[in-house]
Write a structure and sequence with these properties.
elongated, mainly alpha
């Protein structure tokens, strides 16, 4: 019986992720984490609307800025814009995680408070700059205040959830799930 020769993994593919595999492009992982976080924001905002807590749609706000209409097409355009923004913010989160030296749910939630402050201010500016807002929808105001206190809370909770999602994905993409020593081969790592 022939035993195959053990080959050490190449060290230049990038850091190990949570499964012991190497992550080839950490920027892509951070961008995708941001997309998942943005989808989480959209879902929480939808739950807030369905529960009757608020009727603010971030996707419609962004979409009407581009299309000048209040329809399904505007929502789709706004959703795509929101998702891409989420990816870009994911890159900022990753940079902040490197700077503070930690990532995870708690670090993500802490960064999300800053994100909420910046985002709430930008939502107010976007609402004020959008020439179609007065004719199409209520002005959103800073932090969604134009839609009531519940909208402020839902927007805050959505951003905290974004930070948790991005923080957890970021941490999982960089830390091995099991301790790995350099003298272990790939099969030994899985057995450890």
């Amino acid at each position: 019986m022939v035993n195959p020769k053990r080959v050490r993994p190449v060290d230049d593919y990038g850091p190990l992720n949570g499964t012991g595999r190497r992550v080839a492009n950490l920027f892509a992982v951070s961008f995708i984490a941001g997309i998942w976080g943005a989808i989480t924001i959209s879902l929480i905002m939808l739950i807030g609307r369905l529960a009757g807590l608020q009727d603010f749609s971030l996707e419609l706000l962004l979409g009407t800025l581009v299309t000048g209409r209040l329809d399904a097409g505007s929502w789709i355009v706004g959703f795509i814009w929101h998702i891409m923004n989420g990816g870009v913010f994911g890159l900022f989160y990753a940079a902040l995680f490197r700077w503070i030296g930690k990532a995870g749910a708690l670090a993500g939630a802490q960064v999300a408070v800053i994100h909420w402050l910046v985002g709430g201010f930008l939502v107010g500016l976007t609402s004020a700059m959008n020439p179609f807002i007065p004719a199409l929808m209520r002005p959103v105001g800073f932090f969604g205040a134009g839609y009531g206190n519940a909208a402020i809370f839902v927007l805050f909770a959505a951003h905290i959830a974004y930070g948790v999602v991005v923080g957890v994905i970021d941490r999982a993409s960089r830390e091995p799930a099991i301790p790995i020593s350099e003298d272990q081969g790939p099969r030994d790592r899985l057995a450890a």
